[in-house]
Amino acid sequence: xxxxxxxxxxxxxxxxxxxxxxxxxxxxxxxxxxxxxxxxxxxxxxxxxxxxxxxxxxxxxxxxxxxxxxxxxxxxxxxxxxxxxxxxxxxxxxxxxxxxxxxxxxxxxxxxxxxxxxxxxxxxxxxxxxxxxxxxxxxxxxxxxxxxxxxxxxxxxxxxxxxxxxxxxxxxxxxxxxxxxxxxxxxxxxxxxxxxxxxxxxxxxxxxxxxxxxxxxxxxxxxxxxx
Length: 227
Fold this sequence. Notes:
Radius of gyration: 17 Å
Order of helices and strands: EEEHEEEHHHEHEHEEH
Strand order of the largest sheet: 6-7-8-3-9-10
Helix content: 25-40%
CATH class of the domain at 6-87 and 151-224: Alpha Beta
CATH superfamily of the domain at 6-87 and 151-224: P-loop containing nucleotide triphosphate hydrolases
């Protein structure tokens, strides 16, 4: 038997007196994908930030890639790729400079920087400052940053936001199911989200209202989370 890539048991996280996550539990197998649905404020981004070791749990148990959070978070960070709403890129640096900086942080060879620039279609603009990019180009550069160190786990907060259909196709091999990585993805798209994952989690008010294989979930069931 293979240990889960992610295992949560009663995970709780508070923002002040409000519980952003309340008793959330699930297990996700290595190589599988979880899609997380829910209205704004449901706790989706908070969940990703806890899994990325950016926020500490306030209750329950959390294990990511076999390591207990928060005590062993140091052993997880280099194995996770996080793509949030913020690009985590320096706007006055070029895409190439940003990626070389992150490559040094992760001990990645420079050749890898050129490879991912090619893969996201930014080689021709790699020496332009990020602040000159369109929102879609910034998102592609952020994808390149998130996968630069070949992470085992991808945490993706609405990853195709700001991308046109062609750009979605470009980044699919890196962050889609074809990447073979374990993934946790937040989405507001029931059809696309269910198609792209193995397990669905529905959050509302920080609580898990739905947890089932995507084959057993319908768009109508997801819609109920937003009512």
